[in-house]
Amino acid sequence: MNFNHLLIFQKVAEHRHFTRAAEDLYISQPAVSKQIRELEKSLGLSLFSQIGRKIYLTEAGEILYDYARRIFALTDEVETHLAEMRDLERGRLALGASTTIGIYLLPEVLGQYRACYPRIELSLDIANADLIQSHLLNNLVELALVEGSVTHPELTSEVWQADELVLIAAPESPLAQREALSLHDILEAPFLVREQGSGTREAFEAALTERNLPPVTPFMELGSTEAIKKAVAAGLGISFVSTHTIQLEVAAGLLHIVPLRDFQLVRQLYIAYPRQRRLSRASRAFLALLQRDL
To answer: Which stretches are transmembrane (predicted)?
Structure first.
């Protein structure tokens, strides 16, 4: 039994007539009769019985007709579903982002995507850069945006945009009162840093290594940028964070940006996805939106 056999059988069963089924299928009546004989032979069962000039379904024919209707209904349904996915009228997009990007940069982009494709279901996994890359490799997310380098050979990446990291302190901190500070002036201060695997921490440590400076000894390690900001505002220490993360706090006078005359820290933010996996149409549309805003 093949799909063509099943289609011809369904038409004959619907019309209870070989000639009308043939007209519906735009084939000859002998061709229909031949296909039905082949189907009955392959199944070892009679599907139709004839009384006078009328044909009727046998018990086996009734069973097959019930399944045939369901099969072709599912065929129509899957074709509709796939067409909706092709036209981005349906689907799901699982994204991953490291903390700064996920909390401070992506919401606006997600809003734009939602406006263009309101029926695509979105999910966003936010974690540090290392963990997001792991999720990408394990197929938990399809597309990721991360701070820091993407080095795994199974991932490909491209620069999305640049991000400046600045030094912050509490407004009443002695460092906030001084001018023309250098990098060496702050290295002995109590530093608050993100956990290992964070893109922000990786960028700062790489910058020190490039200048042949030893890594700072963290006064405190915290698991989120929000925790870093609260701790700095409370006077517990200083930290480097993305300018995108502190606009409200600086405007409200809760945090102070400490300029350094000899040190500027700019990192790249990357779009990453698996090298060997074809991106879904929903992912490609999101990627196009990101690239449009470059």
So the answer is: none
Provide the 3-class DSSP secondary structure of residue 60: helix
**pLDDT tens digits, 120-160:** 999 999 998 899 999 999 889 999 999 878 888 999 999 99
262 shares a domain with 190: yes
Give the global pTM: 0.68
Rounded CA separation 185/167 (Å): 12
Domain stop point among 70, 86, 102: 86
Helix (H) or strand (E) holding 167: strand 155-169
Q: Enumerate helices (H) and strands (E) in the chain, giving the number of each.
A: 13, 11
Residues 6+ positions from 74 with CB-CB distance below 8 Å: none
288, 94 contact by CB (below 8 A): no
Question: What span, in angstroms and rounded, lies between the C-alpha atoms of 241 and 221?
Answer: 14
- Three-class DSSP category at 138: coil
Total domain count, the chain: 3
Specify the CATH number for the domain of residue 145.
3.40.190.10
Closest CA to 55 of 83, 82, 33: 33
Are 146 and 176 contained in the same domain? no
Look at residues 70, 136, 55 and name the one whose alpha carbon lies nearest to residue 47. Answer: 55
Structural domain including 13 reads: 3-86
Residues 258 and 217 in one domain: yes
CATH number at residue 19: 1.10.10.10
Q: Which residue, among 93, 89, 69, has the nearest Cα to 81 in the 3D structure?
A: 89
* 171 shares its domain with 49: no
Per-residue pLDDT reduced to its tens digit, 249-294: 999 999 999 999 999 999 999 999 998 888 888 898 999 999 886 5
